[in-house]
Design goal:
single chain, 563 residues, alpha/beta, TIM Barrel, Immunoglobulin-like, eight-stranded parallel β-sheet, five-stranded antiparallel β-sheet, 16 helices, 20 strands, 28% helix, 16% strand, binds 1-O-alpha-D-glucopyranosyl-D-fructose, binds calcium ion, Glyco_hydro_b
Length: 563
């Protein structure tokens, strides 16, 4: 028997508030903007919205650098707006989860301001301080995720502090029980306010390797990737279990942790059903398929292989079945647009966007939609570095210049990989700036907003948007889509990804062609019998019978059902 849970049966929609909807013309999305679109989200069929950080922040990293955990960022609105948002969402049957950033704060958080006052400041131990090496080099050779050293020298108190992200994001010291108590109190405060759970930022990085060793590297390499010294260390689990015991288990909530550099075995330690940690984690294995390099070169995408995607999905689907739970996604606010990256954003934009959605919704796990994905929003190519807003993109630009890359090469990499690809304004209609704002948006809207937008998609029965509605409805009607056991079909096929999902005597058969050419389809006889009913397809010619036809059109996807 399956263990039914609301968060397993939910569809989650991720909102990047800065880019979602602006209601006061200052060019920045706001909480009232989200409220104004709740009916849209309800009609889409969304059960949960995840809102990226809306806390007070100097915005070096758009809210992931928090200076007050208990305050709403002024440009987003007020605490009353937030209460209203919770209220109005709940009235529509939509739950709300928020980002929870526990690995670091802003350097403008009062804790850090106090901590850096002197080496014996009472708050000193809230962060991680070390002396440099004898030759004035940083304490270790660890590189930050965002480029450059993970250590910054603080002139005021004459020690280095650790920041595995930007230098304005000092890492919190989870060795300090007082800090932990403060964080627990804060999490409880938000749950008491009515939040329905959290997406927990960078949670697998909160513990750093004892003794702070250097990573092995050739002597001339002063700064190297050292992720293994601050990813998935055993004590992370003690801390999450502690948080669960003290806080989470007292509420009916959902939790999803962000866990880069995590494979399925490690993931089970976070999401295993008797672990009392998290409900699910985001891993990045499938969205790392197209960056085989590390460091700056990692910004240059390389072709991805369907065989690799199959391998990854097989592992995650099989290993977590009946033991944990998957979080399924193609994109988020840190990633390029899915249709540009894994589909085809030219001739087959509509078909391939639907195909990608079909996969995410038909796998076992909870599906996540990133805002704009439901209308097939694409990457953007801005001409000049000054048009980009993301601090990490600017950091990349500086470092690549220093390495001697040409402007062309740098901009090509930025066009492929910049986080701003996902952060252009949501495209609501064909008005200026996609109807996102009546003022000047904080970042340019994609010029294709004139024809890729919600209003026109809503009017077209064959739009990506209406296909998402059908997918969501299908998942609600058929429990097998949520809980069915996954089994791969046609494992060797070069362009077709196919699988079955089985629950009792119900079965889904999903077939998808990931190529821009039609593909030969031969379903094993045991699966392809005449009782199969077509539930959904992204081409209009598909019928019950066509499963036996022997081919799929470019980017065609179909879902069959039998009982
Ligand atoms: O992202 C975390 C993050 O960037 C890494 O875990 C990343 O996945 C890793 O570099 C592997 O490539 C979160 C937020 O989503 C992001 O927007 C923030 O900038 C970051 O944390 C810092 O808070
Ligand atoms: Ca605004």
């Amino acid at each position: 028997a399956v263990k039914r849970k609301w968060w397993k049966e939910s569809v989650v929609y991720q909102i990047y508030p800065r880019s979602f909807m602006d209601t006061n013309g200052d060019g920045i999305g706001d909480l009232q903007g989200i409220i104004s679109k709740l009916d849209y989200l309800r009609d889409l069929g969304v059960d949960v919205i995840w809102i990226c950080p809306f806390y007070q922040s100097p915005n070096d990293d758009n809210g992931y650098d928090i200076s007050d955990y208990y305050a709403v960022a002024e440009e987003f609105g007020t605490m009353e707006d937030l209460d209203q948002l919770l209220d109005e969402a709940h009235r529509r049957g939509i739950k709300v989860i928020a980002d929870l950033v526990l690995n670091h704060t802003s350097d403008e958080h009062p804790w850090f301001i106090e901590a850096r006052e002197s080496q014996d400041s009472p708050k000193r131990d809230y962060y991680i301080w070390k002396k440099g090496k004898e030759n004035n080099e940083p304490p270790t050779n660890w590189g930050s995720f965002f480029g450059g050293s993970a250590w910054e020298f603080d002139e005021q108190s004459e020690e280095y502090y650790l920041h595995i992200f930007n230098r304005k994001q000092p890492d919190l010291n989870w060795e300090n029980p007082l800090l932990i108590e403060e964080l627990h109190r804060m999490v409880r405060w938000w749950l008491d306010k009515g939040l329905d759970g959290f997406r927990i930022d960078a949670i697998n990085h909160i513990v750093k390797m004892d003794g702070y060793p250097d990573a092995e590297a050739p002597a001339h390499e002063k700064i190297v990737s050292a992720h293994h010294f601050f990813s998935n260390l055993p004590k992370v689990h003690d801390h999450i279990q502690h948080l669960h015991r003290e806080v989470f288990r007292h509420y009916d909530i959902m939790t999803v942790g962000e866990a880069a550099n995590t494979g399925p075995e490690e993931a089970l330690l976070y999401v295993g059903e008797n672990r009392d940690e998290l409900n699910m984690v985001f891993h990045f294995e499938h969205i790392s398929m197209d960056s085989t390099n590390k460091g700056l070169e990692g910004w240059e995408k390389t072709p991805w292989q369907l065989s690799r995607l199959k391998e990854i999905l097989n592992q995650w689907q099989t290993k977590l079945h009946a033991k944990g739970w998957n979080a399924n996604f193609w994109s988020n606010h840190d990633q390029p647009r899915a249709v540009s990256r894994f589909g085809n954003d030219q001739e087959f934009r509509i078909e391939s966007a639907k195909l990608l959605a079909t996969l995410m919704f038909m796998l076992e796990g909870t599906p996540y939609i990133y805002q704009g994905e439901e209308i097939g929003m694409t990457n953007i190519k801005l001409d000049a570095i000054d048009d980009y807003r993301d601090s990490v993109t600017h950091q990349f630009y500086r470092l690549a210049q220093k390495e001697g890359w040409t402007e062309d090469r740098i901009m090509r990499a930025i066009h492929q990989s910049s986080r701003d690809n996902a952060r252009t304004p949501m495209q609501w209609n064909d008005q200026p700036h996609g109807g996102f704002t009546t003022g000047t948006p904080w970042i340019q809207a994609n010029p294709n907003a004139s024809w890729i937008n919600v209003e026109s998609a809503a009017q077209d029965p064959h739009s990506i948007l209406n296909y998402y509605k059908q997918l969501i409805a299908l998942r609600k009607q058929h429990l097998v889509a949520v809980y069915g056991q996954y089994e791969p079909l046609l494992p060797e096929h070069a362009s077709i990804l196919a699988f079955t999902r089985t629950l009792g005597n119900e079965q889904l058969v999903v077939v998808m062609n990931f190529a821009a050419e039609s593909a030969h389809l031969e379903i094993p006889e045991a699966v392809a019998d005449k009782s199969m009913k077509l539930l959904l397809s992204n081409v209009q010619s598909a019928t019950d019978e066509t499963l036996l036809d022997g081919y799929l059109q470019p980017y065609e996807s179909r879902v069959y059902f039998r009982e």
